[in-house]
Amino acid sequence: MKGEGMEEKERVPEMFGHLITFAFHAADRAWTGLLSFLTAQSVLVLAWATVLTAKEELAARGPVMLTLSLIGALFGFQWCLLGTRMWHYHLEYVNQIRLVADGIDGVGARGFGIADTEVKGVWHKKHWLFEKAANTWTLFLAPLFISFLHLVMWIVAAVAITDWPTPAWWPRALLVAVGIAGFVWTTFKVWKICEPVLTKKYPPWRIA
Q1: What average pLDDT does the structure give for the chain?
Q2: Is pLDDT above 80 for 113?
Q3: How far apart are CA 66 and CA 73, in angstroms?
Q4: Which residue, 40, 84, 137, 174, is the most exposed by fewest CB within 10 angstroms?
Q5: pLDDT category of residue 127 using cuts at 50, 70 and 90
Q6: Using an 8 Å Cβ cutoff, are 106 and 11 in contact?
Q7: pLDDT of 28-74, one tens digit each?
Q8: For position 40, what pLDDT does the model report?
Q9: Looking at the predicted structure, is the pLDDT value of residue 9 above 60?
Q10: DSSP the chain
């Protein structure tokens, strides 16, 4: 048994360990980046809420709230791209690990494949909720949801907060239209960039 273990170790390329390190490093960067993003977003939302609930009327209150909403939404879209990109690195490294492991006989080399197959058997059901809960989709949808939240904040600031020099209704309607159109257009552009990663199917592991 010991001889078989030593034999398998000799057959494992040195690069195998490096690929594992790269894969975990990419995953760690993706999730750490999302945590940093959510922390920064909480500061922006808190600042927006502080201006909203201020007892004293602040100069340029509406424009300040609109600016905070715009910055938050843009950062959300940026993080959709960044998080998906970093997780793409992770997926490609794991796929390279699969290619190496598939060429090696032995239980040790099959560890990744066995674990991956077992987890996917439970969590990767043919249901939209399970699919959208996957790591790639979570890293894409969480920042997108934050951008949508900032769109709602933009609409609130445009309709209920901003004081216009004219009683006409059109400035509010124009700002709301610009906000919605900008959100839809940018979401479409971000989706087209991330779609190949979000929908890519990788070959299964050989576990036998």
Answers
A1: 81
A2: no
A3: 11
A4: 174
A5: low
A6: yes
A7: 999 999 999 999 999 999 999 988 887 666 667 888 899 999 999 99
A8: 94
A9: no
A10: -HHHHHHHHHHS-HHHHHHHHHHHHHHHHHHHHHHHHHHHHHHHHHHHHHHHT-SSPPTTHHHHHHHHHHHHHHHHHHHHHHHHHHHHHHHHHHHHHHHHHHT--STGGGHHHHHHHHHHHHH--SSHHHHHTSHHHHHHHHHHHHHHHHHHHHHHIIIIIPPPSS--SHHHHHHHHHHHHHHHHHHHHHHHHHHHHHS--PPPP---
Would you say how long the chain is, in residues? 208
Q: In the numeric block, which tokens belong to residue 24?
A: 């975990």
Q: Which amino acid is at 84?
A: T
Q: Which two tokens stand for residue 52?
A: 């909203």
Residues 6+ apart with CB under 8 A from 46: none
Structure tokens at 118: 């077992």
